[in-house]
Design a protein that fits this description.
The structure is a single chain. By secondary structure, the chain is an alpha/beta fold. The chain is built from 11 helices and 12 strands. The strands form 2 sheets. It has a 6-stranded mixed sheet with strand order 2-1-3-5-6-4. A 6-stranded parallel sheet has the order 9-8-7-10-11-12, sandwiched between helices. Strand 7, helix 6 and strand 8 form a beta-alpha-beta unit. The radius of gyration is 19 Å and the shape is globular. It starts with 6 loop residues before the first strand and ends in a 10-residue tail after the last helix. The C terminus is likely disordered.
């Protein structure tokens, strides 16, 4: 039961019905007998700035999680960003301090890596194809580079966005072989769909079917889409006997990182 003493966190995005974080957080809060709750907010893009402004004075709100399509817009409105959020130009979690200051981080990449490890996939020395260079894709690409992939190829419908990410990663990780452009017809150890492709029944596959066929037998096919739970891309990969990673696995793996960034898991919120 949410009451006048309940500490709140929020999640903003649009659409919001498919997100799993409210369920994950509220289950955690209930299991730990905390008077806290997460509320999902379906927020139009043109109202993001107004929301962030109002949060500064929202005294019983400790922070909020950000999903598509607001991660880049939110990052521009915050007082402080972690180095990785600053590099990525996006934030998926915001902490509200007692004085109204807002600080942000970007944990999608961390969540992806932890979920991949739980599925038995370790990035070091592997080749990866990343489809989608939006906020989540940038975070995943950065995390894969940090975790030692030897080769990363980036594809996005926005070719400039993909090339921009390629250039920035090439500068930060000079030993990484990184490319961008049309999807090459070759084998990869990891294929990640970090685009919205697959959310709608009429969506095409994010990669050509023969690219799925060519994924290494001990490789991983991963998707960030959470609804449907299993996209046609993942269905085809599973039919081939490949290990697959569902979108909600990345969301669940981020629980501690998101909660820690907001100061609601792992520590008591402070008045700093």
């Amino acid at each position: 039961m949410i009451g006048s003493t309940t500490r709140l966190v929020a999640m903003i995005g649009t659409p919001i019905a498919q997100v799993k974080s409210p369920e994950n957080f509220n289950t955690f809060f209930a299991a730990n007998h905390e008077d806290r709750a997460m509320i999902p907010i379906d927020l139009r893009p043109e109202q993001v700035e107004d929301f962030v402004r109002s949060v500064r004075g929202w005294e019983n709100l400790d922070g909020f999680v950000v999903t598509i399509p607001h991660k880049t817009a939110v990052a521009r409105l915050l007082d402080e960003l972690t180095p990785r959020a600053k590099f990525l130009g996006a934030a998926n979690v915001v902490r509200r301090h007692a004085d109204g200051r807002l600080s942000g981080d970007m944990t999608d990449g961390e969540g992806f890596i932890q979920a991949a490890k739980a599925n038995g996939f370790f990035a070091s020395g592997k080749s990866a194809l990343l489809v989608g260079a939006g906020a989540a894709g940038r975070a995943i690409g950065h995390a894969l580079a940090e975790n030692g992939v030897s080769e990363l190829f980036i594809n996005d419908i926005d070719e400039v966005q993909a090339e921009t990410l390629r250039c920035r990663l090439a500068v930060m990780f000079p030993d990484l072989l990184v490319g961008s452009g049309p999807i090459p017809q070759r084998a990869f150890d990891l294929v990640v769909n970090a685009s919205p492709c697959g959310m709608l029944a009429a969506d095409p596959l994010p990669v050509p079917e023969n690219v799925i066929t060519l994924i290494a037998p001990d490789g991983l096919a991963a998707d960030v889409v959470t609804s449907p739970e299993r996209t046609p891309f993942l269905d085809l990969a599973a039919q081939r006997g490949l290990t697959i990673q569902l979108g909600h696995e990345m969301a669940k793996a981020q629980l501690l990182a998101l909660g820690g960034a907001m100061g609601v898991i792992g520590e008591t919120p402070t008045d700093d």
